[in-house]
Amino acid sequence: MDQTNRNRGIKSLVEIFIVSTRLGLTSFGGPTAHLGYFHEEYVRRRKWMDEKSYADLVALAQFLPGPASSQVGIGIGVMRAGVLGGITSFLGFTLPSVIALILFALLLTGFDIGNAGWIHGLKIVAVAVVAHAIMGMAKNLTPDLKRKAIALFALVGTLIWQTAFTQVGVILIAALIGYLLYKGHQENGEVSSQFPISKRVSAICLLLFFGLLILLPIIREATGSYWVAMFDSFYRSGSLVFGGGHVVLPLLEQEFVPTGWLSEEAFLAGYGATQAVPGPLFTFTAYLGAVMKGWQGGLIATLAVFLPAFLLILGALPFWDSLRNNPKVKGAIMGVNAAVVGILISAFYTPIWTSSILAPIDFAFAAILFSMLVYWKLPPWVIVVSGAIGGSLMTFI
């Protein structure tokens, strides 16, 4: 029996790694697009989790600091195969872009690929994927006028006030509105998810998160070590960021450019390269670390910036079931889920739409890709390849 369970566990880990790596190789367009790819792959196609569990996981990741799409990916891996599943999912989704950006830092500095036609095509793919995800999530999460109004509030708020803390404020207000409107709402049964980690392990993860946040600056001052200083800067950046990868850029620039650790030109070149690779935007840190300290620096920087996200999602998941099934919390979560729809629509407009749909031909191509995905139900990798080829061909038109 133990051998059977072990084989089943290994099979699950291999499956998670294959699926997450394919997503890591094809998921262009930033965190909102990644949530669309995840929804398509894990909820619609593989049915590893239901719509409500996915929406609740997205709401939790939006509320926590760190890279939301990576935390959702880790959470799905944990729910599928425990802590090892979360690690496997993270590695599969993250390593392709980490390797690409470290190689870029070591070999291709100064080579401009940011304006390549195929990159523009991949941005248009993100438009189609995110539009599809928003349609599906809006249908499930905003079925009545009250929740549509909450989504509209979140959309308007995050579009007008584009600051690092607006998203957190919108989610908190939506939680309060949801609690007031739906505290007496009755749903059919409780939702339960399997989190194969104990609350004790989760408590340790939360203690470790806060402990490192407090102790690393002290150790940095006491030792004067370059490596500790580097780890501390990346860890703190990953711990204090709300709103996705774009928000971490000013924090990282403030940490490393004024101190002379790297030049403004090198920073911007790496940012351009990050837009050209799939996977989470936080892997920009792999490029920065490699510029400063070679491939070892790239790996250390990646570990440091993603470690807070990992500790937080592991720390929060086991308590999530009891919270979301609490009658007093259910209404708040309904409000947050509706707000997430508005936030996704806001992010769909800027930066995804504004950086991708620059001419009528771009909109026409986006409509074709959207139809291929939604109506012809072609797999996402076909849409990605078609987007890259189409983007290259459009440069000749």
From TrEMBL:
It is a multi-pass membrane protein. GO terms for molecular function: chromate transmembrane transporter activity. It comes from the Bacteria. Pfam families: Chromate_transp. Its main location: membrane. Keywords: Cell membrane, Membrane, Transmembrane, Transmembrane helix. The chain crosses the membrane at residues 57-78, 90-111, 117-138, 150-181, 201-219, 297-320, 332-350, 357-375. GO terms for cellular component: plasma membrane. It is found in: Cell membrane. InterPro entries: Chr_Tranpt_l_chain, Chromate_transpt. Belongs to the chromate ion transporter (CHR) (TC 2.A.51) family. This is Chromate transporter. It comes from Neobacillus notoginsengisoli.
